[in-house]
Amino acid sequence: MSERQPLLAVDRLTMRFGGLTAIDDLSLDVHTGRITAVIGPNGAGKTTLFNCMTGFYKPTVGSVRLNHPQRGTLALEALASHQVARAAQVVRTFQNIRLFPKMTVLENLIVAQHNPLQEASRFSLAGLLGLPSYRRAETQAVEKAVRWLTRLGLIDKADLAAGDLPYGTQRRIEIARALCVDPILLCLDEPAAGLNPRESAELNALLQSLVRDDGLSILLIEHDMNVVMNVSDHICVLNYGRKIAEGTPEAIRTNPSVIQAYLGEEEDERYDGDKGAAR
Amino acid sequence: MGEPVVQVLGGATLADRSKDALAVAFVALLLGIPMVGLTTVDQGGTLQVATRWPILAAFVLAVFAGRLVLRYLADRLGERRVRRERSLTSSDQRRTAGGRRMIVRVGWLAFIGALLLPIAFSDNRYVVDTATTVLIYVMLGWGLNVVVGLAGLLDLGHVAFYAVGAYAYALLSTQFGWGFWVALPVAGLIAAGFGLIIGWPSLRLRGDYLAIVTLGFGEIIRVILINWTEFSGGPNGITSIPRPTFFGLPFKPPSDEPTFASFFGLEFSPVHRIVFLYYVILVLCVLTNVFVTRLRRLPVGRAWEAVREDEIACKALGINVTNVKLSAFVLGAMLGGVAGVFFAARQGFISPESFTFNESAIILAIVVLGGMGSQLGVVLASLVLVLLPELGRDFAEYRMLLFGTAMILIMIWKPGGILSKREPTLRHAREEGRP
Amino acid sequence: MNVVKNKKWESGKCMALALQQLINGLTLGAVYGLIAIGYTMVYGIIGMINFAHGDIYMVSAFIAVSAFTLLASLGITSVPLALLTVLLLSVLFTSVYGWAVERTAYRPLRGSTRLAPLISAIGMSIFLQNMVQLTQGARVKPIPPVVVGGFDLYASEGFTVHLAYSQLLIVIVTVALMAAFSYVIGKTSFGRQQRACEQDPTMTALLGINVDRTISLTFMLGATLAAVAGVLVTVYYGVVDFYIGFVAGIKAFTAAVLGGIGSMPGAMLGGLLIGLVEAFWAAYLSPEYKDVATFSILILVLMFRPSGLLGRPEVEKV
Fold first, then answer.
1. Which of A34, B330, B364, C119 has the lowest CB atom count within 10 Å?
2. Do B152 and C114 touch (CB under 8 A)?
3. Predicted local distance difference test score (pLDDT) of residue C232
């Protein structure tokens, strides 16, 4: 397993904000066809890691390499945030859900297909003239959106404004929208936050099916231990920006330093979940 | 069930409200003393202080009473809103669909009305002339609506592009003899070029930088036009700008060459030209509307709205936010430029006077009050804002004051504008209904 | 012989002209700096440009005109007493205006869309400009010179370098105010609260600090500095009209951006630089286009160094 080239290799990444070191010399591999989870207490640097990977922050030191099956090796830390999604096909979601609230669910998913559609519209000319080539592209885009909406059980919400829907639904919309970009690596920032038990069980099933049936790889930041322990193939534990443990769910469950740093803070966890639900 | 909420909201007693109104009146007094209570008047070369205490007293009293009434009304409205939200059902969606049909119908009615207006008022120059002015503002409003309403960028110097278009046509026609129809797209492109130069450095940064850069640009264009006399004629502007012709036929009194009147065997009348100009701007408006409405349903248009809603999400989806913003800004600049060409051709004379910040503020007010992103809202707001000062001198004097106040109130009360119902660019339901 | 003397005279004149522009530029720059601090403080705490700030400055200049005229009609002839009274009155009333702007145009819109407070602020700016035009008249208001005289620093054939007392006053007041201000922001509890709100308003609120009050006070402090700038400009130029806020606002904002928005020393530095550029541009190139120079600086800074001279690069909050 270890000889195989990883899909994504985070190498000796450090991110400092002024005097604060949010990530400290972190290395991490993400393998194709797996679900990798990053866990750790609040402020451990998980979201900062995502921001460094997806072009929102420029890491102080270190590199993030993506071995793209078609496009060779890409240095993600040097790409602009939109290029990470476009050229490297690494797509992320956000902890505090970022939908286009006034647009409908379907429109949200169509916007995610902006680049291919914009190309098909030839600087909007073909689109303005309503040429068949553009109309075909648009129909395909809608079909793709409808396919994902159906799969995630959102199809009856397609024409509603995304911002008016319940929290759990918005989470799913954000995942569906990310899937419309055709990612090879999907990065989910706390997808289970604020979900009820039934919803989070559905999420488990969805994540597993995405890897099994669609050949996706997933990198996950999560607080919900149910989700993490049930679906992850590999877990990396952060504390104060450092990696303190790594391994299979079983190994992590019994790792004493993890228990001390993270699982011992169950109280905090529950509080965090409540806050998410209230949002 | 309804009682407790009502009680909470309606709980404010008269004493509470009076106390609140008294506090507000006190602030009004402090604000009013230096501005309303005191003023300086010029008496034989030196300033003298003049007091206006009765007016100040009236002002403070009006604020007190106004606050009292407003608070009462706001509380009552709040109650009603709570009740309405409770009884919200699926009928709401049906109502939306009905509203959409209504807006389309009103739009068509307005268009037919606009088409027939010169025929109905063929003997009334003033009406047709005013209607032309309204349509210029509609066009400016629609141009700015792309920038502010759709892409969510604050452009405080839209008038600069209007000026660029006007001066481009004025110079191209008087210096190089270009015709109106040839100069129209070229001047539009020149304005778009300016949009590119201004937009590129500021749009990569946060939204408010664009606002201040456009504000500065609007002022700079004016400074240059006033001072660069050889180029722009300075404060005197440019005169005898050629009017548009009817496919080469000028609107002139009978002479040797064929004119519009002689060609069609009509008796010459200055009204012909006014009616013709009216139809020219109507055509330009219709083209703009079709163009913008179609763009909104294309990827670029959806990206504009997406950028307005959440830039960071756009980046995470692979959208180049700077390019998207730039395309909206440049398009707005181009439409402003085209409107400027028409303005110059209609007036036959332009000077920097016509392109002040007030003009930008009026256009922005049209977009903001009408409903950001709403095409019909812009038309209604243009009608109100152009016709209001025509009602009387008092209105004209207080116009900008009212606009400023209205902009603040609208933002607090209904940030989307008065007509703010957003129409989705595509629907799944209809998509399914297709064979 | 003659040629040498001529040359010497030429270079002397050159130096004198440059020195004079230096003095004028620094005076002007101090005023821009004072206004710029208001922009930078408000931007620091709520992350938004206060579009009405230039008009607050204009309002204070009008208050100064009324106050000076009033004092003159009361027969107060002592210049220091008149200055002090006018400064106090202007600061008092103008800070109420600053407070009112925040309460009406910003506070109700906290948590609204990003565009909404910007539009309401520009609405407020339009309102103030036209309100003053209606209540105080559209004409230019001249007042008789308050602080007259000055030093001749250097005089040679046909050219003198003059430092007016009013210029000296501007520089002294600005320096004193800056010192007081650094103390308030750096050492007092208000300053700590203010800096805390800048960094994390939610956390600050959780710690039991009244964020609303801190923001209100920030607007009032900004208005206070603008008020002082307004009084000083009235004394210096002796004329005021309702349009001065607009242009000064853009220039002071440019100063704030040049210095690095959010940084108070940066705002002062930016103000001085803008003042110098304007004075030298007006003297050596063309006085008509001095506003163009400022605007070009704004564009260049935004292109090449958007974080300004002393500012920190902005990290997008994701």
1. A34
2. yes
3. 93
